[in-house]
Amino acid sequence: MTDSQLIREIKDGNVQYYEELMRRYERKILSFIFHLLKSAKMEAIAEDLCSETFYKAYRSLHSFREVEASFKTWLYTIARNTVLSEMRKNKGISVSLEGNSAMTFTSTEHTPEQTVLRNEKVSMVREAINNLPEKQRSALILREYDQMDYQEIANILGQTVSSVKSLLFRARASVKIQLEPYMEPIFKEYEGMNQR
């Protein structure tokens, strides 16, 4: 069944179908919330906010209008607003993209040194993203991590598509500028190897 069919069933009183909607989106919504909470050291409440997101969505499902947005976009908007509301309660805390240890990149095919270097690079990228303003950071998470298109991101952030493109351009440029001092020695070493 499509999301639309499930929603129609739920609105008709077949609430057991809401479990299927939750199953489809729970991991992605939890990951999105976790990323937003990490730098605030609030990741421990990610599951609670995920549950709250699905509860709010269920409570408001009667008012959901598919012509205005897809269920996925609507759900991400609720998740983002839930996180931002929690962050406002804890003023001075910024939203983050920092990952947990389970999300670090490791492979048995790499030497320990390569694994450490790769994890350091991932950490530097996350730190650079953490330094972005909230809207740029959210747009970048939705685009790069959740693979959403510009229109979906615009709907979630309450922006126009051109504003989202501008946010993403500025976010990527800022991340690149922040990472250049770290990447320059690598490029010089690579160029030196090619000249031998």
UniProtKB/TrEMBL annotation:
Keyword vocabulary terms for this entry: DNA-binding, Sigma factor, Transcription, Transcription regulation
Pfam families referenced in this protein's UniProt entry, alphabetically: Sigma70_r2, Sigma70_r4_2
InterPro entries given in the database record: RNA_pol_sigma-70-like (IPR039425), RNA_pol_sigma-70_dom (IPR014284), RNA_pol_sigma70_r2 (IPR007627), RNA_pol_sigma70_r4_t2 (IPR013249), RNA_pol_sigma_r2 (IPR013325), RNA_pol_sigma_r3/r4-like (IPR013324), WH-like_DNA-bd_sf (IPR036388)
RNA polymerase sigma-70 region domain span: 21-91
Domain RNA polymerase sigma factor 70 region 4 type positions: 125-173
Keyword field contains Lipid metabolism: no
GO molecular function: DNA binding; sigma factor activity
GO biological process, one term: DNA-templated transcription initiation
Family (UniProt): Belongs to the sigma-70 factor family. ECF subfamily.
Protein name (record): Sigma-70 family RNA polymerase sigma factor
Source organism of this protein record: Paenibacillus oceani
Phylogenetic lineage: Bacteria, Bacillati, Bacillota, Bacilli, Bacillales
